[in-house]
Write a structure and sequence with these properties.
The complex is a heterodimer of chains A (474) and B (339).
Chain A lengths: L2 H10 L2 H38 L3 H34 L2 H34 L6 H30 L4 E4 L2 E5 L1 H5 L4 H29 L5 H35 L1 H8 L10 E3 L2 E3 L2 E3 L2 E3 L2 H7 L21 H32 L6 H29 L2 E3 L3 E2 H4 L6 H32 L33
Antiparallel strand pairs in A: 1-2, 3-6, 4-5, 7-8
Helix pairs in contact in A: 2-3, 2-5, 2-7, 2-12, 2-14, 3-4, 3-14, 4-5, 5-7, 7-8, 7-12, 8-9, 8-11, 9-12, 11-12
Chain B lengths: L1 H31 L8 H11 L3 H18 L1 H10 L1 H23 L3 H30 L12 H4 L2 H28 L3 H32 L1 H8 L3 H20 L5 H20 L2 E3 L4 E2 L7 H30 L13
Antiparallel strand pairs in B: 1-2
Helix pairs in contact in B: 1-2, 1-3, 1-6, 1-8, 1-12, 1-13, 3-4, 3-13, 5-6, 6-8, 8-9, 8-12, 9-10, 9-11, 10-12, 11-12
Classes of the chains: A mainly alpha (474), B mainly alpha (339).
C-alpha cells in the first residue's frame, strides 16, 4: 500500500463522518457492554451473600441492582444492534473483503448473546417465583456468557490490530483458519485488559453511588454493603489491570510500533528514548511535555539502550492522525488508573488497621470520583487503540478510507445518532436517578410502583397477581 | 451443497426472527392501537406481560441473521447495506427507540412519561417491520445491484417493496394477536380472548389480502419470482394459505389449541416460499447466486459448526425460558419489592 493511494482513497469517501459515528456509537455502547459483562457477577455476589447468610440487606441490594441491570441490558441490546448494522452500513468495504473472517468471532458472540439474553430474561423476572438458590443459579450463565461475549468481540477487534488466520489470493480471502482468527496475537492482551476494565468500571461506578450516600451521612449497613461489594471487586482488580496494561503496551511496541510511537511521542527511531508526560505534538516536535530521559526505552526493554521505532519509520500519510489526542488519552488512562489504585490502597490500609471503612470525608469524595474516573480511563483506552490504529482499519491490509461507505448521507445519520444517543443517555440516567429517588423515598423497603403501563392512579390499581413469597424483605 | 445448507440456515434464522421477533413487534402495534389510558389498560397489561421476559432473546435472532449473512455471503451483505442504507438506518433507529421505550416505560411512574415512552415503543414497532419488509422486497424484486456505489431510493421504494413492507406489518400484528388470544385463553380472560381473537382474524384477513396483492404485483413486475412461487414453491404457498384459513376458522369457532403452531407454520411457509422461489439466486437480477456469492468453504463449515453449537446450547435454553414463561413463573418483576 502506497502513501499516495491512501491519500487518494481518503479524499473521496465518507471516512471522517463514518469514523465519528462509529466512535459515538461504540463509545456509548461500551459503557453498557461493561455492565453486561461485569454487573451480573456483582449482583450475584450480593445475592450469594443474601442467600447464604440470610442477609436481607444484601438481598435487597441484589434485587435493586438487578432492576438497574434490566434497564441497562435493554439499552445495551439495542445499541449493540446498531453496531451490527453499522458494520455494513458504514464499512461495506471492510465487510465485502473481510466479512467472512470477522464473522468467525461474531458468530460465537451470537451464541453468547443468545444465552445471555435468555438467562437475563429468566433471572430478572424470576425473583418472585423461582426458589432462592435456583434463582441464583439461573444468574450464573449470565456472568459466564458475559465473559464469553467479551472474549468474542475482543477477538474481532484485536484481529483488526493483528490480522491473520486467512489466505489471500488476488486480494480475495480464499481460506480461513477460524482458530487463528479467534486467538490472534493481539487478543491475548486486549481481551483480559477489556474484561478487567469492565469489572472496574462497573465496580467503581456502582460503589460511587453509595459513596455519595455515605458522604451525605447515610452510614447505614445498606450503604456500606452497597459500597463495599462493588468497590472491593474493582479495587482488587486494579493492580491486576495495571500489570495487564503494562504488558499490553509492550506488546504494542513490538507488534504495532507506529501506534506505540504515537502513544509515547517517539518522533525518531532510536535508543535512549525519553518518555513524555503530557505535552502537545505539533509538526514533529513535542511542546510543554514533562520529559523523562531514557524512560521510554526502559519501559519497553528494561534498559536505556532499547531501540524504539519512531513515527519517522513510515510516511506521514501512514501515521495516525491526532497524535496529541492519542498521547494525552494514554496519559489520562494511566493517571486515572493510579488514582483508582490509590483509592483501593487507602481503603485497604484502613481495613488493615481497624476492620472498617474509612471515616475521612476525603476518602468518600475520592470514591465518588473513582466512578467517572474508571469510565474515563476505559474510554481513553479505546481512543488510544482505535485512533492509534489509523489510517488502517485492518492493520497493514486495508485503510479505513477503503472500508468506508461512499454513501453521502453519513453526516445525516451521524447527526441523527448524536441526537438519538444524547436523548437515550439522558433518559437512561434520569430513569436510574428516578429509581434511586423512589427507593430512598420508601426507605430501604420501598414498594413497587405501577408496573402496569398507562395504569390509572394507585387507588384504582388492582392487585396484579403478585403474591408475596417467603423471601420478601418485609 | 453446503452453500444451500447455509442459505437454509439463513432462512431458518429469518423464520424464527419473523415468528418470535415479529410477534413482539406486533405486540407494540396492538399497544399503539389499544386506545386511551383506561380502555387500553387490560390489553396493554397482557402485551407487557407476554413480551417482557422474552423480547431481548427473540431480538437476538436479528443479530444472528445479520452475522450469518455477512459471514457466509459478504459481497451480497455489503451490496444490500449500501444500496438500501436508508431503510436500514431507519430500522436500526426504530429498534433503539422500541427497546429503550419499552424498558423505560416499565420504570417511570407518571402517566405522561409512560405515554411518551409507550409511544416511542409502539410507534417504532410499526416502522421497524415496515422498513425491514421494504429491504426484503428490494432483494426479492431484484433491485439491489451486485456492486452498488451509493444508496438509491429506487431500490426499496418499488411497489413490491412497499407491499412487502405493509405485509410485514400486517403479519406481525397477526402473529401477535394470535399469541395474545392464546395467552388470554390460558388465563381464562374471556373478554381479552375475544378482543384479540377479533383482531387476529382482522389482521389475518389483511395479511392474506396483502399477500395476494403482492403476488398479483409480482406477476406483472417480476415474472421469474412469480414463476418460482407458482411452480417450485407452490406447495409452500398452498401451505401458508391453508394455515391462514385454518387459523381464521379456529378463531371463529373459539378453538385455540393449534392456533400458535398453525400461524407460525403459515408465516414460515411464506419465508421459505420466497427462498425456494428465488433459489439459487442470492441477489436476483445480478448473477450473484448462493454459490458464486459465498464465502470460502472453510468459513461455511465454521458457520455450520457455530449453528450446531448454537442449536445445542441455545435451543434448550429457549425451551427453558418459554416453559418458565408459559408456567407464569417469570411474572414477579424484578422491581416487585412489596411485602
Amino acid at each position: 500500500m502506497h502513501a499516495m493511494q491512501v491519500l487518494a482513497a481518503a479524499a473521496g469517501g465518507q471516512v471522517v463522518p463514518a469514523r465519528a459515528q462509529m466512535a459515538t456509537t461504540l463509545g456509548f455502547h461500551i459503557i453498557l457492554a461493561c455492565f453486561g459483562i461485569a454487573f451480573p457477577a456483582v449482583v450475584l455476589v450480593a445475592e450469594f451473600r443474601g442467600l447464604s447468610r440470610s442477609d436481607e440487606v444484601a438481598m435487597l441490594l441484589a434485587r435493586r441492582w438487578s432492576q438497574v441491570l434490566g434497564v441497562l441490558v435493554a439499552v445495551g441490546a439495542v445499541t449493540g444492534t446498531v453496531l451490527s448494522f453499522e458494520m455494513g452500513l458504514l464499512w461495506p468495504g471492510l465487510m465485502r473483503a473481510y466479512g467472512a473472517v470477522l464473522g468467525v468471532p461474531f458468530g460465537f458472540e451470537g451464541i453468547f448473546f443468545f444465552l445471555e439474553a435468555i438467562f437475563t430474561g429468566i433471572y430478572l423476572y424470576g425473583w418472585q417465583r423461582l426458589p432462592g438458590w435456583m434463582h441464583f443459579y439461573t444468574g450464573i450463565p449470565i456472568a459466564i456468557t458475559g465473559l464469553g461475549g467479551a472474549v468474542a468481540v475482543m477477538a474481532a477487534n484485536s484481529w483488526m490490530n493483528s490480522p491473520g488466520g486467512f489466505t489471500l489470493s488476488h486480494g480475495k480471502v480464499v481460506a480461513v483458519d477460524p482458530w487463528q482468527v479467534f486467538f490472534n496475537r493481539a487478543s491475548l492482551y486486549e481481551t483480559p485488559h477489556m474484561i478487567l476494565a469492565a469489572y472496574m468500571v462497573v465496580g467503581f461506578l456502582v460503589a460511587a453511588v453509595y459513596a455519595a450516600g455515605i458522604l451525605k451521612g447515610h452510614r447505614d449497613r445498606y450503604h456500606r454493603l452497597g459500597f463495599g461489594i462493588p468497590f472491593t471487586i474493582a479495587a482488587i482488580l486494579t493492580p491486576v489491570q495495571i500489570f495487564a496494561g503494562d504488558t499490553a503496551a509492550r506488546a504494542i511496541a513490538a507488534q504495532q510500533p507506529v501506534k506505540f510511537a504515537a502513544i509515547e511521542y517517539v518522533t525518531r527511531t532510536g535508543r535512549d528514548v525519553p518518555e513524555y508526560l503530557g505535552g502537545l505534538y505539533l509538526n514533529g516536535k513535542v511542546y510543554f511535555g514533562l520529559r523523562i530521559p531514557y524512560a521510554d526505552s526502559l519501559l519497553v526493554g528494561f534498559k536505556p539502550s532499547t531501540k524504539v521505532t519512531g513515527l519517522d519509520a513510515v510516511a506521514p500519510a501512514l501515521r495516525p492522525p491526532a497524535i496529541t489526542l492519542i498521547h494525552l488519552s494514554f496519559d489520562a488512562m494511566i493517571g486515572l488508573a493510579f488514582l483508582l489504585l490509590l483509592a483501593g490502597l487507602w481503603a485497604l490500609w484502613i481495613w488493615w488497621r481497624r476492620r472498617g471503612l474509612p471515616r475521612q470525608q476525603w476518602f468518600w469524595r475520592l470514591a465518588i470520583a473513582c466512578g467517572p474516573a474508571a469510565l474515563a480511563a476505559m474510554e481513553c483506552g479505546w481512543i488510544v487503540t482505535e485512533v492509534g490504529r489509523q489510517p488502517w482499519v485492518v492493520y497493514h491490509l486495508m485503510t479505513t478510507a477503503q472500508a468506508a461507505t461512499a454513501n453521502g448521507g453519513v453526516t445525516g445519520s451521524l447527526t441523527a445518532v448524536i441526537i438519538l444517543y444524547a436523548v437515550l443517555g439522558v433518559a437512561t440516567v434520569l430513569i436510574l436517578r428516578m429509581l434511586a429517588r423512589r427507593w430512598r423515598r420508601g426507605g430501604p423497603h420501598a414498594g413497587p410502583e405501577a408496573g402496569v403501563p398507562y395504569g390509572p392512579p394507585a387507588a384504582h390499581r388492582e392487585p396484579a397477581g403478585r403474591e408475596p413469597t417467603g423471601r420478601e424483605p418485609a | 451443497v453446503i452453500t444451500g445448507v447455509v442459505g437454509g440456515i439463513l432462512l431458518a434464522g429469518l423464520t424464527l426472527y419473523a415468528a418470535l421477533g415479529g410477534a413482539d413487534f406486533g405486540g407494540g402495534l396492538w399497544d399503539l392501537l389499544a386506545g386511551a389510558d383506561q380502555r387500553g389498560r387490560a390489553p396493554r397489561q397482557l402485551i407487557d406481560d407476554t413480551i417482557t421476559p422474552v423480547w431481548e432473546a427473540n431480538h437476538v435472532w436479528l443479530i444472528f441473521v445479520l452475522v450469518i449473512f455477512w459471514t457466509a455471503f459478504p459481497p451480497a451483505f455489503a451490496a444490500v447495506m449500501t444500496a438500501a442504507a436508508l431503510p436500514l438506518w431507519l430500522a436500526a433507529f426504530g429498534i433503539v427507540l422500541r427497546g429503550a421505550g419499552f424498558a423505560f416505560r416499565k420504570e417511570v411512574e407518571t402517566l405522561h412519561w409512560q405515554r411518551l415512552f409507550g409511544a416511542a415503543f409502539a410507534f417504532s414497532s410499526l416502522i421497524v417491520p415496515f422498513f425491514m419488509g421494504t429491504v426484503i422486497g428490494a432483494i426479492a424484486s431484484g433491485r439491489v445491484p451486485a456492486n452498488p456505489a451509493h444508496a438509491d431510493l429506487a431500490v426499496w421504494t418499488g411497489p413490491t417493496s412497499l407491499l412487502i413492507g405493509a405485509l410485514f406489518v400486517a403479519v406481525c400484528a397477526y402473529l401477535a394477536a394470535v399469541f395474545l388470544t392464546r395467552e388470554a385463553g390460558r388465563r381464562d380472560d374471556h373478554r381479552l380472548r375475544r378482543y384479540f381473537a377479533r383482531r387476529a382474524a382482522a389482521a389475518g384477513a389483511v395479511s392474506g389480502a396483502l399477500a395476494l396483492a403482492t403476488l398479483a404485483e409480482i406477476h406483472s413486475s417480476n415474472p421469474a419470482l412469480f414463476h418460482g412461487l407458482t411452480h417450485r414453491a407452490l406447495p409452500l404457498v398452498i401451505v401458508s394459505a391453508a394455515c391462514g384459513l385454518a387459523v381464521i376458522a379456529s378463531l371463529a369457532t373459539g378453538r385455540s389449541q393449534a392456533l400458535r403452531p398453525l400461524s407460525v407454520l403459515g408465516v414460515a411457509a411464506v419465508v421459505w416460499g420466497w427462498g425456494v422461489a428465488q433459489y439459487p439466486a442470492l441477489l436476483p437480477g445480478t448473477g450473484l447466486t448462493l454459490a458464486s456469492g459465498a464465502a470460502p468453504h472453510s468459513i461455511l463449515i465454521t458457520v455450520v459448526v457455530v449453528v450446531i453449537a448454537a442449536a445445542v446450547l441455545v435451543g434448550p435454553s429457549f425451551l427453558l425460558l418459554f416453559s418458565l414463561h408459559g408456567r407464569q413463573l417469570l411474572e414477579g418483576e424484578s422491581h416487585a419489592e412489596e411485602g
